[in-house]
Amino acid sequence: MSLARAEVRAVKPEKVVLRMVGNETVLLNTDTGRYFALNDVGTQVWARLMSEASVQAACDALCREFDADLREIEMDVDQLLARLDAEGLVEIRRVEP
Known about the structure:
- By secondary structure, the chain is α+β, with helices and mostly antiparallel strands.
- The chain is 42% helix and 25% strand.
- The protein has helices spanning 40-51, 55-66, 70-86; strands spanning 8-11, 16-21, 24-29, 35-38, 91-94.
- The strands form two sheets. Strands 2-3-4 form a three-stranded antiparallel β-sheet.
């Protein structure tokens, strides 16, 4: 991620449809037909990313929620966002002041 996590947030593009299937969340890019399934932990990460003001705020909240190492969570979130971004399933936008 080229910008600091505190400077960006994750946004679901309009072209992405989200559905719950059991304990998983399925994200479908309606432009490409590509989809991605998130397990229960991935679903919790997605929910935090969509609800927090920045990627860093989401990481901080996940750190408290899972009582895990912040650096490890940041790396995992960065990897997930990179994969979702590559599939057109998330947009990374600068936080509005």
